[in-house]
Amino acid sequence: MDFLAPLKIEALNSGVSTGISSLPAHGEIIESYSPVNGKLIATVKSGDKSDYETVIAKAQAAFTEWRTWPAPRRGEIVRQIGEALRTYKEPLGKLVSYEMGKSLQEGYGEVQEMIDICDFAVGLSRQLYGLSMHSERPAHRMYEQWHPLGIVGIISAFNFPVAVWSWNSMLAWICGNVCIWKPSEKTPLCAVACHHIISEVLKRNNVPDGINGMVIGGREVGEWLSADARIPLVSATGSTRMGKAVGATVGARLGRALLELGGNNAIIISKYADLDIAIRGAVFGAVGTAGQRCTTTRRLIIHEEVYDSIKDKLLAAYKQLRIGNPLDENNHVGPLIDKGAVSGYQKALEACKKEGGRFIVEGGVLDGNGYESGCYVKPCIAEVEPHFKIVEQETFAPILYLMKYTTLDEAIAIQNGVPQGLSSSIMTLNLREAEQFLSAMGSDCGIANVNIGTSGAEIGGAFGGEKETGGGRESGSDAWKAYMRRQTNTINYSTQLPLAQGIKFHV
Ligand code: NAD
Fold first, then answer.
1. Is the ipTM of this complex over 0.95?
2. What is residue 21's predicted lDDT score, i.e. its pLDDT?
3. Active site located where (predicted)?
4. Among residues 33, 156, 253, 295, which one has the fewest Cβ atoms lying within 10 Å of its Cβ?
5. How far apart are CA 198 and CA 27, in angstroms?
6. Confidence bin at 334 (pLDDT 50/70/90)
7. Are 13 and 45 within 8 A, CB to CB?
């Protein structure tokens, strides 16, 4: 494991940091096992409540200084972080792949996303525009400006162990906020590595210690962040179950929650589709990252006239899939994150069969040489009805459901007929169909694509979804506004005090 030394990962690491300094941690030890081979990678000492309080105090103090740094100067720090990530892309990408189980290419791709969001944030640091408005009163000027919020709490999921944090923190920082990260307890070493990489940049630039806090631990750390009125914004990525808990707790104190939760993403394959593109998009979307992306394709809604042809092509494509060590670039599908996820996959297969689903590619857990971790499963395909309970749920594994449709209205109704609303796509070369799908009568998701699959996204767009996906938007476009507070300012440079709406008030 040549990649651990450059990232300064030791046998036992502290899971508590204020950004520049790692602090002694007083919580339980978390052991990180690789789903690739079941071996222990290293351990992390988690933070307890007193460690959390230390990190909060440092963050509060750091904010009073950091908010006074001009935004472009904050952007310069983020630019240097991007450079550091370029330097460490290879070891960090390998660690992501080894600790999380995604393919090496996806591990590198995830670090590239971090670099890309740094570049985006640097440009944004010279923008953060507010509008100016024409006042209805003479000799008055009216405009709006954006100020930082304070501490941003970031709760992240295991499947994007580093990118999701960077989407949040890079934007939050250029906006003038300080961050406290609660990474997934399933991928703690990726978080420790990020802190080591970034602390060098922060130290070199005399950035106030506390802007990049981290407390590794179980869900209780997420609960502390959610309940803490000193944290005006909690950005939480993970399951809908988690989001409902976080949303309720943050809402009860009237804080802000930015929620990025589960998806149940579908591709509609029209009879007018380019079937080769459709198959490639569907297979990559369904089996990439072993079905553990929030944007994974879980449902194919296929026009009856091309249904059999799509089925045959899928069968042929699935026969070619190579399942195994994700660090070996010849393999297409790596492991699930842990045995708990494997058991969730098995339960979904049973539930699907019970409801009448017919498997055209059978699932199952793999064992034997190369599969010793017990986390490798077969990507599978079932023919189902849209109303099956199991089809309405997100199972975080490579299970693909096929459904048939006759009219586009029916296909859109099936696509929208689930509680989640993250990513969606239509494969069609027919302009009317494509436009209907993108219109107000079309997809109800935060992401709607034409002739590309559901999986993955570019950082330039706002990322997130509707309904049980939580409604949050991160990353590109104007997602930065979630990390700032808007202030409307009116300045009177006349010698009068005219009131709005022409109201007269004589004293
Ligand atoms: P998870 O909900 O089990 O855990 C996510 C994080 O929330 C972890 O850090 C966990 O410790 C914390 N947490 C759990 N319960 C909590 C609570 N009650 N209060 C506060 N924090 C709590 O999710 P996971 O298994 O790590 O990730 C998979 C899920 O994440 C999938 O549903 C996937 O779709 C979703 N996801 C969504 C997006 C998106 O952008 N929409 C991105 C990645 C993953």
1. yes
2. 87
3. 260
4. 253
5. 24
6. very high
7. yes
- Looking at the fold, whether 152 and 249 belong to one and the same domain comes out as yes
- Beta carbon of 318 within 6 Å of any ligand 1 atom: no
Output the six-digit token pair for 255: 């804080």
Question: How many structural domains are present in the chain?
Answer: 2
pLDDT digits (tens, 9 = 90+) for 92-140: 999 999 999 999 999 999 999 999 999 999 999 999 999 999 999 999 9
Which residues 6+ apart lie within 8 Å of 391 measured at CB?
A: 299, 352, 384, 385, 401, 403, 418
In-domain check, residue 218? yes
Ligand 1 closest atom vs CA 186: 26
Residue among 371, 362, 347 at smallest CA distance from 400: 362
Residues 163 and 250 grouped into a single domain? yes
**DSSP of 294-320, one letter per residue?**
TT-EEEEEEETTTHHHHHHHHHHHHHT
CB of 97 closer than 8 Å to CB of 187: no
From atom 26 of ligand 1, which residue's Cα is the shortest distance away? 157
Binding site membership of 237 for ligand 1 (Cβ less than 6 Å): yes
User: Annotated catalytic sites, by residue?
Assistant: 260
**Which of 427, 388, 171, 151 is closest to 275 using CA atoms?**
427
191 three-state secondary structure: helix
Residue among 200, 5, 242 nearest 85 (CA)? 200
> How far apart are alpha carbons 232 and 341 in whole angstroms?
33
Ligand 1 neighbour 384 (Cβ under 6 A)? no
pLDDT band at 365 (very low <50, low <70, confident <90, very high): very high
Please provide residue 99's backbone torsions phi and psi, each rounded to the nearest 5 degrees: -85, -35
**Does any ligand 1 atom lie closer than 6 A to the CB of residue 250?**
no
Domain with 184, as residue range(s), is 2-261+470-488
Residue 464 lies in a domain: no
Mark whether 304 and 410 lie in a shared domain.
Answer: yes
Beta bridge pairs of residue 256: 233
Calpha distance 426→139 (Å, rounded): 53
Inside any domain, residue 505: no
Are residue 397 and residue 273 in the same domain, yes or no?
yes
Instruction: Record the tokens describing residue 443, joined without a space.
Output: 């997809």
Question: Residue 55 is which amino acid?
Answer: V
Q: Ligand 1: distance of its center to the CA of 349 in Å?
A: 22
Q: What CATH number does the domain containing 355 carry?
A: 3.40.309.10
Return all residues near 47 (Cβ < 8 A) that are at least 6 apart.
Answer: 15, 16, 25, 26, 27, 55, 215, 216, 217, 221
| pLDDT tens per residue, range 380-414 | 999 999 999 999 999 999 999 999 999 999 999 99
Q: Specify if 170 maps to a domain.
A: yes
